[in-house]
Design brief:
Lyase 2-enoyl-coa Hydratase, Chain  A, domain 2, alpha/beta, 10 helices, homotrimer, 2-enoyl-CoA Hydratase, Chain A, domain 1
């Protein structure tokens, strides 16, 4: 995987680090970065040797949001949107916020994704972390949902993700004020799982990733991750019951047999099922219930 | 705006204070107050000179709930409900809890609304604050969802709002016990954003309101506020994507151009769009997705 | 009520203690225990002399999850699932995770249910507590959503319940890692309402139960409990408005009259309505909106 705007490195445990790599622009987001991120996520999700993904930034920023000084990269509309399409008209579905295409893909990943925020993340640099499973911040990092200060609105589905992470009162406060939050404030609100000394950031992220991949069944992690994200908006627990009953039957005949055997024999399990081919039957893991397209 | 049960005063920044004004009754709620609140909210929402609304109480209470000793004001049913309508029958939709008409209107306001609780708020005096964006409590204030103690049930859609603010475990505890909560307990549960010395209450509320209106685009704040409230019950982030993509395109061609220009030119922005006329096209801001009537 | 796997004792206030009673197996879950739990919940819910239910474990464990060494009790599939049913096929609805049948029943109880965790609860021993209204943990108790460590997936609708209790970030962490959590970690995440010294556990649970039943109307508590659980997944507050308007009208003509009268006369109320027969008309309390079967 070779990219213009991204770097990728994966270790022998399957824990990879994806680096947003436009350090001279504080890793500001562009149309090119969107395309490369989508391609990366698709590839990594299909590769069973990848067990967990850490996302960080090169240099002193995490991601400075859309590159507002980058017309040459992004075309007429600085946010990459088609100004000739009528939101009232028949082509309205063609209007797709770039950040949303990335967060919707992250939402249905089969691997844990951890944001390791090394510096400032604002705009899409803040919202892209919301469908990740954990956010670890350097004590030098900050985060800002600054949309109201530049006359636009919160994007990348952040109105759905943010209150589920930090609660309604914080979500309204952060996005109506548009203010930048310190790492400590972000931890206190529930945004950051951890704040660590700057130089320990990647080690902390890797230690967390290791907790998700060592001794766990990759398909179990994938199913749990997907059940939690998909049920976050479900009307009634019966929807979880329908999904988990079928997944449990399937898993109980696969890695579950090994899990039970290793438990009885007091030895470490050796799980064999692969996310690429062995996700439970009976559920379409690429769509959300009730099978709405994304 | 002249009311029997309310006072209204707005400053040059567009920050207004609405005072529930029946101090001899601890501002207890009546049918008249419901009507006046609905009229007030409609008027203030349509008035672009109003940027934020603070709600407080006159005298020593915030709002003592329905006026249980006020038959003369409220008719036969002390809660203002039509006892001759059959909840099984064809007219069931005519049964509308008074508090709910107010909270549903608050839910879709285009301006930040802040509760400045100066004293006790119980019953509708507690539930009416839930669809506001922040609650600031005087250290003398208390709050109580006391319904189970008087043989009725939680109202004003509070079963929807309360757990989204304070979590399931607290919401169940507060409403099954019917107990009054101190300001500190309310802060610890996530109900109050701040608890301040009694004499600093209005200043604290105004300082918070100023954070939402100074340097921000009024339409951006309105869109963010509405997206967050509407997506709190949405099934899938794709619903946010559909809404924010269209809103973003619209805003990127309006206040967003000024926002980007001011950012590039390192100057303060001058936003021109008005909530009364310039809300993004393609979304019906008066209805919730999927366009359910309220 | 006589059971093989359960003990039940109720005091004069209607506060009962249900003890999972397989202490030599750390109260591990079996098909028999599922059947007895469902029968117990049905019976207790229909018995107006029962006002609140405390669930605890006999001996040193709370519940060690499915009895993984109990083939003789559970048949071919250690999780009690029908291996001959195709999750793709027409009989897929017959696949019902055992834990889910219990948690779905708990979800619609008319009485407060409190988990008093005396020791380790893992697997279904953890997930069965989620639709209870509060969790009190002994300082010796632990909790673990260990599914990923034995090759299966989270069950008992826990993907729906868990993030609503402890937030997305904690829920993903606990279930991807499969790690056991201490009582203190469980309190800090919002899982436990209280952690108490081991010998004070049942007293603390009873004190909490008493707060829910003393001076409260049983039907009010039942309605509030059900409204909160059912609205946790509702799209829009209008759904709460439809439900609470009708319930409020009904209650205002029953226990509400006594509540208002006792308030005016400054005396203790004597509520007469019974959950078994007097739940508000116009709502089907055995089904969830929009009347989805469970």
């Amino acid at each position: 995987m070779e990219y213009e705007t991204l770097l990728w490195e994966v270790d022998e445990d399957g824990i990879g680090v994806l680096t947003l790599n436009r350090p001279d622009r504080l890793n500001a987001f562009t149309v090119k970065m969107t395309e490369e991120l989508l391609e990366f996520l698709e590839t990594a999700d299909a590769d069973d040797s990848v067990r967990a993904i850490i996302v960080t930034g090169a240099g002193r920023g995490f991601c400075a949001g859309m590159d507002l000084e980058g017309d040459e990269v992004q075309g007429d509309n600085v946010f990459g949107l088609p100004e000739d399409v009528d939101p009232y008209g028949p082509d309205a579905e063609k209007i797709r916020d770039l950040g949303g295409t990335v967060t919707l893909r992250l939402y249905r990943m089969k691997k844990p994704v951890i944001a390791a925020m090394n510096g400032v993340g604002v705009g899409i640099g803040a919202t892209m972390t919301l469908p990740m499973d954990a956010r670890i911040m350097s004590d030098k990092a900050k985060v800002g949902f600054v949309f109201s200060k530049i006359g636009i609105c919160m994007e990348a589905c952040s109105s759905w993700f943010l209150p589920r992470l930090i609660g309604m009162q914080n979500a309204l406060d952060w996005t109506m004020s548009g203010e930048i939050q310190s790492a400590e404030a972000a931890k206190s609100a529930g945004f950051a799982a951890e704040v660590v000394p700057h130089e320990e950031l990647l080690d902390a992220a890797k230690a967390r990733a290791r907790r998700y991949v060592k001794g766990t069944a990759a398909v179990s992690v994938a199913v749990n991750r997907n059940l939690i994200w998909r049920m976050a908006g479900a009307r009634h627990p019966i929807e979880a019951h329908r999904a988990d009953s079928r997944a449990m039957l399937d898993l109980s005949m696969g890695d579950g047999k090994e899990g039970v055997a290793s438990f009885r024999e007091k030895r470490a399990p050796e799980f064999a099922a692969k996310p690429s081919s062995d996700m439970p039957r009976g559920l379409d893991w690429d769509l959300a219930p009730p099978f709405m397209e994304d």
